[in-house]
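Suppose you are handed only two things: the residues of a chain and a line of SMILES describing 2-amino-3-ketobutyric acid. What would the bound structure be? This form records exactly that question and the answer produced for it, so the two can be stored side by side and reused later without any lookup.

QUESTION INPUTS
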Amino acid sequence: MDKIVFITGASSGIGAGCARKFASQGASLILNARNVNKLSALKEELEKQYGAKIYLLPFDVRDRKAATSALESLPKEWQSIDILVNNAGLVIGTDKEQEGSLDEWDIVIDTNIKALLAMTRLIVPGMVERKRGHIINIGSIAGDAAYPGGSVYCATKAAVKALSDGLRIDLVDTPLRVTNIKPGLVETNFSVVRFRGDKEKADNVYKGIRPLTGDDIAETVYFAASVPEYMQIAEMLVMPTNQATGTIVSRK
Ligand SMILES: NC(=O)C1=CN([C@@H]2O[C@H](COP(=O)(O)OP(=O)(O)OC[C@H]3O[C@@H](n4cnc5c(N)ncnc54)[C@H](OP(=O)(O)O)[C@@H]3O)[C@@H](O)[C@H]2O)C=CC1
Ligand SMILES: CC(=O)[C@H](N)C(=O)O
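ANSWER OUTPUT
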């Protein structure tokens, strides 16, 4: 794949999985996250394993000024981004809507909604000009229906669906494509962040079920990116076999 792929939140989980998959297929990658050490280790791995061309662009996606100047700083040969994977995201806590921390929810909303929108706003005009591009947003099954303790997170992922659908409408007269990938249970660092570093609680989320991995979701992202240009995978809901909805899971 002779394309430039920009992945936010590439230092871990689904984003790192996407980096590995696209690198294995010959794409050139711009990798973003805040943790520079993890990004550098991934760059080294992908250069060694696949001879991939990697450009690191670490910044906090919530920082609009940093995002703007990072993108402006890209060398000319890296500016024509073909695929934007809006993946960076998180949740903190499982509090009820009437009890949780507004400060923590600001972080969740700013990352999952406002930063995704800002990256789209910064990168898509160039795609429109070049008449090629694909925006792949990582939504969630959580965007389909709210669940206990997930009110704000679910709302942000419902917003990702609305932003994806809206962008697809706004780009309907262009060759650009928009995809919303909606994973179910995927074992990554996500639950460790959700439970504020409590690894035992995080591990319990995946007890008794075979969860998906970041690499599994990367396969679906790559699939959406690699179908012929006249095809647009608008949405994909991908979950473990023993999961039926955001809350109905059979554990053995
Ligand atoms: N795991 C799951 O079950 C599911 C996850 N998802 C979604 O998948 C996406 C990836 O999550 P997942 O891989 O599971 O979780 P991880 O915690 O493993 O990865 C999250 C990534 O987002 C990055 N990130 C978080 N905040 C910022 C920020 N402010 N600026 C830049 N990067 C940031 C982190 O990097 P760093 O800390 O270095 O900045 C990390 O690379 C999220 O949008 C999540 O909502 C959707 C459905 C299911
Ligand atoms: C992290 C996710 O989005 C997951 N599907 C969940 O809602 O727990």
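WHAT STANDS OUT: The two ends are 40 Å apart (CA to CA). Strands lie at 4-7, 28-31, 54-56, 83-86, 134-138, 177-183, 235-238.
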